Amino acid sequence: MNEYINLTLKNIDDEHICCAIGDPKHQIGVDMKKEWIKSKLKDGHVFRKLNARGKMFIEYEPIETAWVPIVGKNYEYIYCLWVAGSFKGKGIAKDLLEYAITDAKNKKMSGICALVSKKKKPFIGEKKFFEHFGFKVIDIIDDYELIALSFDDNETPKFNESARKMTIESDDFTIYYSNECPYVEYEVKELSDYAKANNIKLNFVKIDSLELAKNAPCVFNNWANFYKGKFVSNTILNANSFQKLLK
Question: Which CATH number fits domain 162-246: 1.10.1660.10, 3.40.30.10, 3.40.50.2300, 2.120.10.90?
Fold first, then answer.
């Protein structure tokens, strides 16, 4: 039987957080992600993982305090559900999602929701997997969909009006990011160095508060790219992918 662990203030310093395991270049990002989790535990943030070395976890918290431009009441929001590598196909994702659903019901929540997309995108949930558990689309912005499993007839969450803009005033390549993901800090530095070496104007906007997250100018989970004032993608870029995107 699979053994799972929930991160707490007592064990988080000794436990890995699944992403970027064993890659020293991401250690700063991992440390910052752990600090972010610590700050969110008081809000009811849950990070549950398989007790093994690999990428298999679910992360969620109440929508009222979730760092996403989604508004609502008494719903849980799933930031990420990820099972990778040799752990796929063993029922782990099912276990994790069913735990989150049961947890939400036990807390007398009205439902649980997640961000997916019409076409597969990196760092976004698998729509068909969630639909198997009864999740339904409740709001849409372009290719992105907010889906929910509702337990009662209360009003469902929706994207904030700011997120529907999908535009910003600056024409410069601009990246919005947060420490929700341990990969971002290294890529911010790599992109900054690349842009400086190639005399490219590149702006970064760090989402470091609930207010900024709730009022993000686009669909946002942890990273968003803008160019010439328009949203480009949610893909976390490195120097090579940034160069290809500009071309």
Answer: 3.40.30.10
The owner of tokens 């972010």 is 36
For residue 5, give the 3-state DSSP assignment: strand
Q: How many CB atoms lie within 10 A of CB 135?
A: 25
**4-158 to CATH, choices 3.10.310.10, 3.50.50.60, 3.30.300.180, 3.40.630.30:** 3.40.630.30
Place of tokens 């990820």: 82
Query: What pairing do the DSSP bridges indicate for beta strands 202-206 and 173-177?
Result: parallel
What is d(CA 210, CA 67) in angstroms, rounded to the nearest whole number?
6
pLDDT in tens, 113-166: 999 999 888 889 899 999 999 999 999 999 999 999 999 999 999 999 999 999
Please, what is the Cα angle at 209 between 196 and 154, to 5 degrees? 130
Q: pTM of the entire structure?
A: 0.96
Rounded distance, CA 188 to CA 183, Å? 9
pLDDT, tens digit, for every residue of 85-94?
A: 788 888 999 9
Amino acid at 225: N
Indicate the SS3 state at residue 97: helix
pLDDT (0 to 100) of residue 35:
97
CA distance 50 to 55: 8
Q: Residue 123 class from Cβ within 10 Å (0-12 exposed, 13-18 middle, 19+ buried)? A: middle
Query: Would you kindly state where each structural domain of the chain is located, as residue ranges?
Result: 4-158, 162-246
pLDDT at 226 over 80: yes
What's the mean pLDDT in 31-58? 96
